[in-house]
Amino acid sequence: MGLMVGLGLGLLVLAGGTQMLAQTLRGQRALQQDSHVHHDLRAALGMIARELRQAQLIEGAWKLRTRAPCQDAFCGNAEDFSIQADRINFSVDRNHNGTKDNNECLGFRLSSGELKARTACQPEVWTAITDVGSLNITQLQWQVQCAPIGRLWQRWVTVHLSAQWPGDPSRQWQASQTVALRNPIPSAAAPADC
Length: 194
Hints:
It is built from two helices and nine strands. The protein has helices at residues 2-52, 61-64; strands at 81-84, 87-91, 105-111, 114-120, 125-128, 136-149, 152-165, 168-180, 185-186. The longest helix has 51 residues, at 2-52. Strand 7 and strand 8 form a beta hairpin. Helix content is 28%, strand content 36%. The radius of gyration is 25 Å and the shape is elongated. The strands form two sheets. It has a five-stranded antiparallel beta sheet with strand order 1-2-3-4-5, with helices on one face. Strands 6, 7, 8 and 9 form a four-stranded antiparallel beta sheet that branches. By secondary structure, it is of the alpha+beta class.
């Protein structure tokens, strides 16, 4: 009889320990998933900030952009800088030749839960930089602020990203970052995107 009682208590303790281990493993898995999502969200935001900081870059801009409207190839068209809903387009003179090549039209947009980067002018080429299987981007917003600096306008773009764990809308994250564009533009009045 004592052996049966002891065996019953042992099984009860073992079942409790197993339950605690399962809870701990579920909690650890959720923390690892959260860490993974935060890392992916911050990496995407960092990439956007790095590229966007260079918007409308051209060597010698301080000489070329002395009066409005801009006279260079990177400062006058919608593909040079424009925002439409959850999409931004901009151009960068990567090779510093003053001519807009096909790989110098950049941008970011949200498409079916993925954040995509533009890598070509015509035809437009968009490449996914997030994987909807590990991070579902639910919202991408842009906000532009401008301030006059003499005859130029300095601009800041605030990027807001919202995401959720795929298949679990109760687990959501948000991140935002303000990026100062390094290349002011000339204008007699506030730029259209301000």
